[in-house]
Amino acid sequence: MPTKTRGLALIASLSAANVVFRFALAGGPPNVKPIAFLVIVAGVIGGPIVGLSVGWLSMTISDFASPFGAGLWTIETSACMAFVGLVGGLLWSRSQQLIRWRLAVGGFVLTAVYDIGTSVLDSLVYNYPWLSAVVALYVPFISGSPSPYPFGLAHELTTAALLGTVGPPVIRQIRKVYR
Q: N or C: which end of the chain has fewer CB within 10 A?
């Protein structure tokens, strides 16, 4: 059984890594970041509460540190990413055998829930049609988006690819230290 200190260290280090990744990869392709990957990894290693904490802190701290600052979106993105970590922990924290395809599919679905959830919440907060917000994630040219880039699909594929390839070895290595 891990100590509280190890749990706090895991939360702090993975949250800090996510904050750094959000800034370091800001100039790269949009939504190609390992944020959801590390949040799910936190849930798998430390359990649902650790996943929830890393999800919430990653988004909140990076928004406050951002030049754009925090806003209403900070609450929704933090809550939705916390949900991703919570569910990732509920699904896989007790699993000894990490099956790559299950992690990849689960990561894809959890990231899609995050993307769709934040898009719908944004549309409600800022009063625009929620359906066009969701469509813009995947087929932006149909929704009339100024960008042809599929932000949602890029995010989900990044998370799925990371969980399906490097996820199990990363989780195994951190578990050695954590437990």
A: N
DSSP string, the chain: ---HHHHHHHHHHHHHHHHHHHHHTTTSSTT--SHHHHHHHHHHHH-HHHHHHHHHHHHHHHHHHSTT---HHHHHHHHHHHHHHHHHHHHHTT-SS--HHHHHHHHHHHHHHHHHHHHHHHHHHHTS-HHHHHHHHH-HHHHT-S----HHHHHHHHHHHHHHHTHHHHHHHHHHHH-
- Given a cut of 70, whether residue 155 has pLDDT beyond it is yes
Tell me the pTM.
0.94
The answer to which of 86-100, 106-120, 135-149 has the lowest mean pLDDT is 135-149
For 33, the domain range is 4-178
Spatial distance between the Cα atoms of 42 and 53, rounded to a whole number of angstroms: 9
Looking up residue 47, the CATH number of its domain turns out to be 1.10.1760.20
Handedness of CA 138, 139, 144, 148 (dihedral sign): positive
